[in-house]
Amino acid sequence: MSNHLVGRPAAPFRRARRPSLTEALLAAALTLSAGAALAHDFRAGALTIDQPWSRATPAGAQVAGGFMTIRNAGPAEDRLIGGASEIAGRLEIHEMGVVDGVMRMRPVEQGLAIKPGEAVELKPGSYHIMFFELKRQLKQGERFKGELQFEKAGTIPVEFAVESIGAQGAGQGSGAAHQGHGG
Amino acid sequence: MRKLRIALWGLLAAAAVAAAGLAWQASRGAPNAPVRTAGAGIAAVGGPFRLTTHEGKTLSSADLAGRPFAVFFGFTHCPDVCPTTLFELSEHLKALGPRGDDLRVLFITVDPERDTRELLATYLSSFDPRIIGLTGTREEIDAVTVAYKATYMKVRTSGDDYTMNHTASVYLMDARGRFVGVLDYQEPRETQLQKLRRLVAG
């Protein structure tokens, strides 16, 4: 598909010196890798998944949380309904909140709706991915693979960046800068 | 038209009654009702307990006399609040410096079926070594949660698995075992640290 486009550009470009296939591919590869390194986001169809991250886990921990922002640029609602990861036996989508000093957790049974034109943030104290049956301890600075399953967009492969054990957001390092929790 | 209006008002009234009912139920079920005080303003939170530490020793409330302590109820199969709180308590202990040695920090599991002494020991190796993990029989755990008016509840996830709802506040107790306040999960870290400084200053 992309080879076809690069190899046979539309007529008006024929007169100008056009980049060779190698040059074009190289440029595309550079753009892609730079984008991935800076923004660390993943796209499929109308959905963009920004900065999936997790936290270093204490020794012996069997669970971990996964966080990210999911944007829907399309005209139709989509739903995050499940997924899988190399570090966990299984994962679920949960909602958590601290109400009257009590931490409450509940599985999001029907999937997490991402309305058209909107973004949903999965973050500490709110919606999150819950990894069960951890296969190993997560260490700060590493990355692990996962895939998220959406009702319409299908399966989107992502990579989670592991932050510190006390991090409250993506790319925070020690998490020492935060002032209180989101919830 | 008039019938429709009456019907709509009827619906609205029914909705109002339902909402009031829900609100009443919610307030009745609120686990963090204002702390009841007994007699001359002595808070009725806290009380005797006897549990097993992550090192396999017995720890009773009597052993804590003479030094202030902080109590946190949680469990190791907890993705967010528990590791975050233990991490922050570790940071606070570090910030308190040598005064931190005067404070005992207790992490009491509300999930004794899974949180064995060994698992608690492994888990706590990732935090400040002064934090003491405590487990016990279901009866012993129930007794201490009742004494501290802490709540916990199993929530079923898929399959046979479960997670838990639980009180997320850290209870602060003075050297005489009297309840003096809580660290709120949502409050700024600096506020928490000030409360702990006050606690260890006695």
CATH class of the largest domain in chain B: Alpha Beta
Strands ordered across the widest β-sheet of chain B: 4-3-7-6-5-10-11
What class do helices, strands and sheet pairing of chain B give? Answer: alpha+beta
Distance between the termini of chain B: 72 Å
Largest sheet of chain A: 11 strands, mixed
Provide the CATH top-level class of the largest domain in chain A.
Answer: Mainly Beta
Radius of gyration of chain A: 20 Å
Note poorly predicted spans of chain A: 1-16, 33-37, 174-183
Strand fraction of chain B: 15-25%
Named CATH architecture of the largest domain in chain B: 3-Layer(aba) Sandwich
What characteristic shape of chain B results from the CA principal axes? globular
Signal peptide (chain B): 1-19
Pfam families (chain B): SCO1-SenC
Family (chain B): Belongs to the SCO1/2 family.
Protein name (chain B): SCO family protein
Structure description:
The complex is a heterodimer of chains A (183) and B (202). Chain A has 183 residues and is mainly β. Chain A contains two helices and eleven strands, in the order H-H-E-E-E-E-E-E-E-E-E-E-E. In chain A, a hairpin with a 2-residue loop joins strand 1 and strand 2. The longest helix of chain A has 19 residues. Chain B has two domains: 30 residues; 164 residues, Glutaredoxin (3-Layer(aba) Sandwich). In chain B, the strands form three sheets. Chain B has a seven-stranded mixed β-sheet. At the A-B interface, strand 5, strand 6 and strand 9 of A face helix 2, helix 3 and strand 9 of B. Strand 6 of chain A pairs antiparallel with strand 9 of chain B.
Short description:
Chain A is mostly beta strands. Chain A has helices spanning 2-7, 21-39; strands at residues 41-44, 47-55, 64-72, 78-85, 88-99, 102-107, 112-114, 119-122, 127-134, 143-150, 154-163. Chain B contains 5 helices and 11 strands, in the order αβββββαβαβαββββα.
Keywords, please?
heterodimer; A: 183 residues; mainly beta; Immunoglobulin-like; eleven-stranded mixed sheet; 14% helix; disordered N terminus; disordered C terminus; B: 202 residues; 2 domains; two-stranded antiparallel sheet; 5 helices; copper (chain B); SCO family protein (chain B); signal (chain B); SCO1/SenC (chain B); Thioredoxin-like_sf (chain B)
